[in-house]
Amino acid sequence: MSDELITQVKQMIIDALRIEGMAPADIDTDAPLFGEGLGLDSIDALQLVVAMEKDFGVVVPDAATGTKVFASVRSMADYIAANRK
Average pLDDT for consecutive 10-residue bins of the chain (85 residues)? Predict the structure, then answer.
C-alpha cells in the first residue's frame, strides 16, 4: 500500500465529511476514526461508505466488515488496495 493511497483516503474523509480547516497531514494514519480519534459517528460512517464506493469503486458489504474497515485510515487504505477493481 502506498503513501499516496493513504493521502487519498485522508482527503476523501475530509471531502466526504466536509471537515473545515483540516489537511490530510492533520489526520493520524493509525488513530481510531470513531470515539477518541476523529470522533466520527454512524452517520459519518454511511457517508464514508458512499464516498469509498464513488471514489474507489469499493463496496463495504455489511456492518461487521465496516467495523474492521473503518478502524483507522490505514485499515481503510488496506481494504481499498485489496478490493479495488
Answer: 92 95 94 88 92 96 92 96 89
